[in-house]
Amino acid sequence: MVADKSSTQNISVTLRVWRQSGPNSEGKFVDYKATDLNPNMSFLEMLDVVNDDLERKGEEPIAFAHDCREGICGTCSLVIDGKPHGPHEGIASCQTYVRSFKDGDVIVVEPYRAKPFPVQKDLITDRAAFDAIQQAGGFISVRTGAACDANATPIPKENADLAMDAAACIGCGACVAACKNASAMLFVGAKVSQFSLLPQGQPERDKRVLAMVAKMDELGFGNCTNQYECSAACPKMISPDFIARMNRDYLAASFRQSLTPKSSV
């Protein structure tokens, strides 16, 4: 339940936080009292307050990742009460506010749970697997020469809009954390589609989708079972339609590859 946003009364909550000293260490939940909180502070600011108190006591602060704190970068990826990024739709962890909870609530905070995202410390996970998928083929490397006039290559507005929707993916990994199979297909679908919808992405279209899907499978991400938890947890609300678009591209690319004569050496 979301607390009354008009309330200015300070609240106190208990944070049940996952603590893990290193990637090879066993972890456990530890409770911390967070008292007299301004309801308008963000979730990350609340963690800052708790860490300040821990440091004053000479205790190890809670390790968590953050950067822009403006819902742009996706670095602040937390699972809050069982939901990646928290209780609301279309926002990142840093945009979740204390007023989203009630006085006396126990809030469970943990890292993403997925084999390809190993926990490094406390709430920080290593999401380099997404970088590896992107590097496998998610860029345009064909030389296009000097920039042409903006109107020289007409692009249907529908395609341009869809490409921008796909490019809105910030690679936070919430889709993987929300999926029971730890599937990365929403992320890969978005990164494939943002180029396949545009003229610049056509020369490497087949190579890109084959390489990125192969890397995704190699890294141990699971398969999609079309339950769409991924899209529901996505802070940018990326549509699962991009998964279907990627599947079509992958099947077409696989078929064309099977027709290509193999060179004999």
From TrEMBL:
Residues annotated as domain 4Fe-4S ferredoxin-type: 160-190
Listed cofactors: [2Fe-2S] cluster; [3Fe-4S] cluster
Matching Pfam families: Fer2_3, Fer4_8
Domain 2Fe-2S ferredoxin-type, residue spans: 11-112
InterPro entries associated with the record: 2Fe-2S_ferredoxin-like_sf, 2Fe-2S_ferredoxin-type, 2Fe2S_fd_BS, 4Fe4S_Fe-S-bd, Beta-grasp_dom_sf, Helical_ferredxn, SDH/FRD_Iron-Sulfur, Succ_DH/fum_Rdtase_N
Similarity annotation: Belongs to the succinate dehydrogenase/fumarate reductase iron-sulfur protein family.
Name the UniProt record assigns to this protein: Succinate dehydrogenase/fumarate reductase iron-sulfur subunit
Organism in which the protein naturally occurs: Actomonas aquatica
Phylogenetic lineage: Bacteria, Pseudomonadati, Verrucomicrobiota, Opitutia, Opitutales
